[in-house]
Amino acid sequence: MQTNFTKKQLQDNDNTSTEKIFKKCVHCGFCNATCPTHQIFGDELDGPRGRIYLIKDMLENQKKPTAKTVKHIDRCLSCYSCMTTCPSGVNYMHIIDHGKKYIEKNYERSFFDRTIRSFLSVVLPNTGYFRLASYMVKLAKPFQFLMPLRIKDMMDLMPTSFPKKTLKQKEIYSVTGQKKIARVALLTGCVQKEISPQINESTIRLLNRHGVEVIVPKKIRCCGSLNHHLGREDDAHQDFRNNINTWYDEHKKGNLDAILSNTSGCGTTMKDYGFILKDDEKMKKKAKVISELTKDVSEYLSESIKLNFKAKDKKYKIAYHSACSMQHGQTVHDQPISLLNKTENEIMEIPEGHICCGSAGTYNILQTEIAKELLKKKVNNIESLNPDFISTGNIGCITQISNGTKTPILHTIEVLDWYTGGPKPKILQRN
After folding, report:
1. pLDDT tier, 430 (very low <50, low <70, confident <90, very high otherwise)
2. Which of 123, 233, 284, 294 is deepest in the core (most CB within 10 A)?
3. CB of 150 closer than 8 Å to CB of 131
4. Residue 79 and residue 33 share a domain
5. Last residue of a domain, one of 268, 303, 338
6. pTM score above 0.90
7. 391 forms bridges with which residues in the sheet?
8. Could you tell me which of 89, 99, 102 has the C-alpha nearest to residue 21?
9. What domain count does the chain have?
């Protein structure tokens, strides 16, 4: 792709990086074939190639974004399916992030839109606010029919109760009764640790059982991906710097073997810290180290730990949903399937498994109609397999898919914990 940035524009490091990516694009259109929104709308501007042209036009001409441009950019799920399809290695993730950041700085959204986005930015990463919002939703449920459609949809996605946590919260989960073979930090997630604490508990139990000490520093905040994908870079960078400094100090103090994420959307952003902060002289070295240490929990278990599986009498049909942020963002796909196969159950990949379920961070809140359509397709594909339950590696996907099917859905780590000596997940205890 030919570019027309001026020398002055290329003094901006973001423009320089994005221009290099633009130049890799050969207009082939393979990306459109796997783009969920292009499949729905059939519009060039609702596919990656069209969005690249829109962003290129904005940046080169320093245009104020139009409502039409913002609509098409906002419709992007950031699922990155286009990246695993692209034969030219175009890093669309960095292009779309740049585009969203530019829009946030140069476009005035409606009051309602700004309010919703600010609400998500403040509430979702903050445990106290999230629980308070959930309580308020519970009180307002009887009056939901009076609310605007978007508010109704948001209310449907909010939990009205929280599971009891069974593992005492600590900063260090030590190995007992056996030799310690590794030391890792675990990102426990913002919403995840409140609505599905069993995911972190399963992760810690499994790792401790196999000789891995787990560190959960109190200073760690949101990974920053929520604000990053909303284009709110100032807020995102506060979280980036806080977490990078905290983990880096922990690494220097005790030599972390890895920093683990069991929420694949978070892991994708953490692995990108090195790129995001490449121009920050104070942080770029630390950010690069943290990105290199970051692994999805299934990736780490596949590479570093020999799991001790315990056979079960009953065999299950398990449909594996590969989260977009994992298979496309991190190129981690075969590892969790390989681990699940060791349980000796029947592991089935879902038809059109490369297509997003519609969760995509806050997408199912901000673009509810598109998200609902994608959910319907995903559920139809899952139910065509008639599985006993579903396994996936991302809390967003779990929340989204569970709203469309009665088939039980578990995090992959819950299944692995169960098959290596942990408790049977509660959702399956009646089966």
Report:
1. low
2. 294
3. no
4. yes
5. 303
6. yes
7. 320, 410
8. 89
9. 4
**C-alpha distances in Å from residue 264, one per residue of 27, 76, 308:** 30, 18, 24
Six token digits for residue 323: 């989260």
Looking at the DSSP bridge assignments, the partners of residue 410 are 391
Q: Which residue is listed with tokens 């694009």?
A: 25
d(CA 207, CA 301): 9
Cβ contacts of residue 277 below 8 Å, gap of 6+?
237, 240, 241, 244, 283, 284, 287
Q: Are strands 212-215 and 172-173 parallel, antiparallel or unpaired?
A: antiparallel
Q: What is the CATH number of the domain that holds 101?
A: 1.10.1060.10
State the virtual CA torsion across 74, 77, 83, 87 in degrees, nearest 10.
-70
Let me know if residue 339 belongs to a domain: yes
What would the two tokens of residue 51 be?
């969005």
Tell me: do 394 and 424 sit in the same domain. Answer: yes
The parent domain of residue 229 ranges over 172-303
Long-range contacts for 238-244 (Cβ within 8 Å, ≥24 apart)?
A: 239/125, 240/273, 240/276, 240/277, 240/283, 240/287, 241/277, 241/283, 243/270, 243/290, 244/273, 244/277, 244/283, 244/286, 244/287, 244/290
Q: What is the pLDDT of residue 377?
A: 97
Last residue of a domain, one of 286, 303, 320: 303
For 420, other C-beta atoms within 10 Å of its C-beta total 20
